[in-house]
Amino acid sequence: MTRPYLRWILFGIGMIHVSMLINYLLANWIMSLIYDTWFPDMGYPLGRQLLTAFLMTNLFGIGMMLIRLRFDPGRHQLNLFMNWIDAMRRMAKGDFNVTLDSDPRRIGQMGVLVRSFNEMANKLSEVEKMRQEFISNVSHEFQSPLTSIGGFARALRSDDLSPETRQHYLRIIELECARLSKLSDNLLKLTSLESKQHPFEPKPYRLDRQLRRAILSCEPQWQSKKQEIDVELPDTTIVADEDLLNQVWFNLLHNAIKFTPEGGAVRIALEERDGCIRVEVADTGIGVSEEDLPHLFERFFKADKARSSAAGGSGLGLSIVKKIVEMHGGEVTARSRPGEGTNFLVTLPRETPGGDSSQPANR
User: Fold this and answer.
1) Helix or strand or coil: residue 102?
2) Handedness of CA 224, 226, 232, 234 (dihedral sign)
3) I need a labelling partner for 63 at 20 to 30 A (CA). Which of 15, 78, 156, 212 fits?
4) How far apart are CA 340 and CA 356, in angstroms?
């Protein structure tokens, strides 16, 4: 027998003897009180000693029963089940701020279930908070252009407007409508991606050619701002969903061009390293603060809210980028400093799981 177990056994035996001694002293005091009150002349006969021993035994038994009732796991488990039922009723009504007592001394063998239930309730509470925040953000994003459209539509009723002012108001309404349409499309896109119902068809194709086409499609934007485009795109074949990744490159390039001032530079580099394909999109734009950087890929997050709103941003582009990259088993990260630009790095596996690599990469 190991020393710790022997120590606990000796401690238990000692506690029993101490308890019996305390109960004997208590029983002897009670019997002395009885005899001194009603039988003062009887002294200490054998019957008194037997009654004292009998009372001591009963006191000891009552004490053990009280201790058992106090620490009985069955009673605690009954309370646990009652609290569990109440918690599930609250969760059924939408209240996820529930927690069950996870003290191992009280829940016994139910510990794994209780901890799993608390973890589930915590996750559901986080999802509910995200849902409420999502609804609030969507309402806010729709409310702003709708308010603008309504205001300018009312202004157009005036007969005193000049043709130039009327055309200006109409252009603003048209831009706000386009902003609403883009926001709606992005919401539908993100919802489709997150529901795992979106078509996903990885096939081999030339990634360098896709990136060149994306850069050329953005030419009017970077030409108008006289930006320098630095390209480093060696021949690279990847097995991925071309349509989805096209959305990634468009969003990253659009952001880089939009937040880089006139005369700045945007760099797009492609390389293969450690069995992965890395695409870097870097700019010399306004950058992102250190406290905003961890939230950059969250839905509706805007590091520069005033500038994003003016440029028609919805805060969904980078969320879509992150989701598409994760669908391919890759990772997207960002590094930035205010005033020094932002660097996005997309790392993708050379072949997406489930892709068909037997087809030729001739695109």
Assistant:
1) coil
2) positive
3) 78
4) 41
